[in-house]
Amino acid sequence: MARVRGFPENGELVVCTVKSVKNFGAFVSLDEYDDKEGFVHVRDVATGWVKYIRDYVREGQKVVCKVLGVDSSKGHIDLSLKAVNDHQKREKIQQWKNEKKAEKLVEIVAERMKISVDKAYDLFGNELLEDYESLYDAFESAVADTEAFLEDYEGAWIDTFLEVARENVAPPSVQIDGILEMTSYAPNGMELVRDALLKGIEAADGADVEITCVGCPRYRVLVRAPEYKEAEEVLRDVSNAAIGDLTSKGGTAALKRESK
User: Fold this and answer.
1) Which residues make beta-bridge pairs with 223?
2) Mean pLDDT across the stretch 159-164?
3) Distance between CA 14 and CA 27 in Å, rounded?
4) Which of 44, 59, 137, 182 is deepest in the core (most CB within 10 A)?
5) CA dihedral defined by 107, 109, 111, 112, rounded to 10 degrees?
6) Residue 1 above 60 pLDDT?
7) Are 44 and 82 in contact (CB under 8 A)?
8) 226 pLDDT exceeds 90?
9) How many CB atoms lie within 10 A of CB 223?
10) Is 47 left (phi over 0), alpha (psi -120 to 50) or beta?
11) Residues 6+ apart with CB under 8 A from 138
12) Residues whose CB is less than 8 angstroms from the CB of residue 191 and which lie 6 or more positions away in sequence, other chains included
């Protein structure tokens, strides 16, 4: 196996497969740690009294657990199911799926380069794992900012890695929105509002921005960007430009952020 991992850290969330269920707890294998065995005591299966443990876990089930303690000398890993909420579970499962996909992509790179998977990890995989939180993050970064990636890495593997990344990984992105309330009582008020919104689009400077009317005088500004900080900056620039243009012509305008 190209990737061999030691033991998880206390507090870490891990994806597990339930191997056997007893009245006193469940034995699981840790999918991300070479199927090392862990144990979930019945008191850590669910909040409150657990009358029938099989109401909560069953053999073959994928679960997300929190690491309570690790004794690497004895190979003991104590886990908790009840310490993981639904949001954490969904997020962890998605991360796990992404990493499984990334491992497959490394195999594709190795196949195209006509080298073994072990050699691929020696060439670039292990280095990327040191630099990024996960292999998938490395593939995403390569797609999102190829120029920066090329500044950090070089080697015979680069071209094939980028090729595989572009074919299989979409650039990471976030989406935010806000409501512009735009009012003008001038005879040509609608035209002034339209011009102000166009000024906002111009201020986006090519960023991914969409403005739609959700019922006058409300206009939704939708911004997509690689990360939240950039998206917020674009939304600020767009709204400031639109608001500034309309108020300079006697209208009123404001940006409203709707709570989710």
Assistant:
1) 176, 209
2) 97
3) 14
4) 182
5) 160
6) no
7) yes
8) no
9) 25
10) beta
11) 102, 128, 129, 131, 132
12) none
Whether the pLDDT of residue 105 is over 50: the answer is yes
Average pLDDT over the chain, rounded to an integer: 93
Alpha carbon distance 26, 62 (integer Å)? 12
pLDDT at site 183: 96
What pLDDT score was predicted for residue 3? Answer: 55
In 167-194, which positions are buried (b, 16+ CB within 10 angstroms) versus exposed (e)? Answer: eebeeeeeeebbbbebebeeeebeebbe
Measured over all CA atoms, what is the biggest interatomic distance in the chain, rounded to whole angstroms?
A: 82
More confident call, 238 vs 175: 238
Give pLDDT, residue 133: 83
- Spatial strand order of the sheet with 218-225 comes to 208-215, 218-225, 174-183, 252-256
Dihedral class, residue 51 (left if φ above 0, else alpha if ψ from -120 to 50, else beta):
alpha
Of the candidates 206, 210, 212, the one whose C-alpha atom is nearest the C-alpha of residue 223 is 210
Query: For the chain, how big is the Rg over CA atoms in Å?
Result: 26
| CB-based contact 35:82 (threshold 8 Å) | no
Determine the Cα–Cα distance for residues 221 and 201; give it in Å rounded to an integer. 10
The DSSP letter of residue 169 is -
Q: What's the pLDDT at 260?
A: 46
Closest CA to 173 of 98, 229, 97, 224: 224
One-letter identity of residue 214: V
Give the side-chain half-sphere CA count within 13 A for 59: 4
